[in-house]
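INTERNAL AUDIT FORM
Audit reference: QA-55
Scope: verify that the stored structure record matches its stored sequence.
Auditor: D.O.
Record contents follow.
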Amino acid sequence: MEAILEVKNLSKKYKDKVILNNINMKVFKGDIYGFIGPNGAGKTTTIKTILGLLKPSKGEVYIEGRNILNDRENNPSNIGAMIDYPSFYPNLSGYNNLMLYANVLDLSKRRVNEVLELVRLTTDKDKKVSNYSMGMKQRLAVARAFLTKPKIAILDEPTNGLDPEGVKDMRDLIKELAKDNNTTFIYCSHILNEVQNLCNRVAMINKGKIVVEDSMDNLLNSNKEEYVIITEEKNKLKNILSNVTLNMRDIEQGVSVQINRGDFKLINKLIADNNIEITDMSKKSNSLEDYFMKEIGL
């Protein structure tokens, strides 16, 4: 599959401090691509460099095969962004705030109304932004990012400050825009559960380096399951399961086994047929948070 956005050997130094160290990323058309990492890892520097707000020390950024770092004049319509806390003129309406940007970009009133409809703010477009909820301000920021009909939208912490209902609304909005507008998203967030629920691919950055880039399914081994089995007959259990598990390890009161999804009935039958007394058996969930903590050494 051809990448719509590709970052090659991107590096950034401030004096003697290395902020980014040979970053390589591929974002494919249609991705909702999670970009995660601890504070100070280099996420914002990477995003700002992709957007042309920072000049890299070296490296290249391609959108649809075109090196945008060498061709910035023809870039503005390809990529939209919502970074940092959304800032608007509080005493102007949502509509008039967007019109300020539309006039600079030589866009029509019709386009402003279109993006307001996209983010479901049409009925509130004439309210002052000072009267908007946090969720409405975040959606207005998404509308601003979509004014130029971008092929790629970068959203940096779009659920900051939102209550659970607002988080769900933002997640649903991103899925809807990705599907209905064929928009590719780069989604940066510290809420790893949201990244896991929303994104199909993810890159993890730590100390200026990409630690991993892969599909969410591969990272979380979604075709595999892990069970913790508590028993006093540990050795007997290990013997009968040794040929049917992908991985097995001792724990204090039993074993942890990894199996192919759907093989649980076979494991259960072997335990019953061999009269092994089980004290407890539980399925261990795979989470992006667990993977993240393991990879960055926390």
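Auditor finding: record pair retrieved intact. The mean pLDDT is 89.
Action required: none
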